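REQUEST FORM: STRUCTURE PREDICTION
Request ID: SP-0412
Submitted by: Lab K.M.
Chain count: 1
Length (residues): 307
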Amino acid sequence: MTENAQDALAPPSLAQQARRHPVLAEAYKIVSIAVGAVVFAIGLEGFLIPNDFLDGGIVGVAIIVTRFLDVPMGVFIGVLNVPFVLLAWAKIGHRSAIRTGVGIATLSVATIVLHHMHAITDQSWLALICGGAMIAVGIGVALRHGGALDGTEVLATIVASRTQYTVGQLILGINLAIFTVAGFVISWESALLSAVLFYIVVKDLVDRIAHGESGVHMVRVMTTRYQEVASMISEHIKRPVLVDRHQHWYADGPGEDVWLITFTCSRLEEATLVEDIEALDPAANVTFTEISNLHGPLLESMTNRGH
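STATUS: Completed
RESULT:
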């Protein structure tokens, strides 16, 4: 019996078994995003806010607004993120929007519930490092499972797909503006330390957990069911894909033909695309390579997406 035949007779892996239960698989993703949101809230309410630090994005805006209005910060987190969830629904897809909505709603409720918790530490640098690490873990877990905990991530992903800027560059600009405002409203010391927190602790850890920071990935799918998979991907990303024919080669000689499909996608699209590909061909191999910059026809194709 050949090695390929033995592989075919091998029992299905846990991942293959999970794909047979899409409801459970989706529930797992939703629960993971919710857990990530709770971890984020603990880092925020247990470490950062009691020590007068802040986060970037919509959460940072909510922290600043609560300095002027006597309303729980969690309320602002939920309300200010609603337009971005709707934007995700229209531009990215309903699954990512639902997951993002669940994550943001959980974060909003968790920050309200934990608002009066005592500071876990009053040591500034310890609070920065521990709080930043928890926030990074929460964001990274959400992104890894196809959701987000902040509307700026959604906005940056959509804008990056239509411009030459990366998600990281756009979020950098947004947060620089927020930290500058915080310098006037709260204190320059807190604003500067919060910026250090974001760019030294949070940013790199989020990137490690969520796999990539540019927001655009080059994707390669190796499959034998290339017609179905290529048509599905092209319909999803609203762009043509590249399809090449290859041949497996083993130690004892040539093997079966296989097709390689190449295309680009945003970070928020990654999880849903993998799910759709695996649904059509559970044996497909999918690899992602981060793209730092885009120029030329490929950039134009992403810019014209949906037109």
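NOTES: The mean pLDDT is 80.
Reviewed by: T.R.
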